Amino acid sequence: LYLCNGNKEHAALIVDWLAYAYQNPGKKINYALLIISGYQGVGKDTLALTMARLLGEDNVPFIDDDAIAEGRNEYMKRAQLVVVPEVMCGDRRDVSNKMKPIITQPVVRINEKNQKPYFTPNRANVAMFSNHENAAYIEDGDRRHLVIICKSKPHAPEYYDALYEYIESDAVQGFAWFLANRDLSNFNPKANAPHTEYKDTVRNATKAGWEAFLQDAWDSFDAPFNRDVINLREALGVIGELKGTPRISVQQIGPFTKQVRGGDLGKPRIGAKGTQARGWAGRDTEANQGPPPA
Q1: Banded pLDDT at 273 (limits 50, 70, 90)
Q2: Which terminus of the chain has fewer CB atoms gathered within 10 Å of its CB, N or C?
Q3: SS3 for 34?
């Protein structure tokens, strides 16, 4: 209840998720758990540490955004629960896209160093934690994230001393018994993630970054969308010269341009020398599409 601001319904959602993962090792839940707190030290990681104790520490790898971005996924060979203790990929669509198969797909690609890539069954569930509301990229209609934002302030240090002592002692078997005997007759691991108002908060916080910046520039006819045709890398350079802009990549500008009716014009020859450069229509693809080559 503490992590859920006293909301019993939200607490039940978390407990059901944890109980299913404990009762059914090797079986996937089709959505990840994301718990966020604006305060440091409220005890978000105690859930992950407790599950690691119950499932076996070798079966619960703790990873970071960089390990996800690298895409090797070697930790998935043994994982029953993947924990991202400080996720911060709300403005990194590349990381978000690589998380999707880890959260939902039945198989996952392993790409270890000096070995040929191979596929293995994906038996891991995913729990993520963060201190930032823009921790993950949440799309409209998202099905992959159960989001809880803890607004409670940290307890006194003595509380956490006792809690960690409990986790490390044999007394934690009581929590194991609780999870093992949880009635899950109404829990569907294949269903979409239950919606909470906190998911909307995270989605809006994500859009308040790079996506909101690009949308505002496009709506206002500001750089880099003040021209009919743009080059993505040149546009990125223009954005980088502006003060106070969020971190933006070419991989973000391209899909956004398509979303607002722009599009890839290919590599037309431009200038007296006929140099090829990839151009993107900033607004109307058909109007800026040149005639087909003779």
Answers
A1: low
A2: C
A3: strand
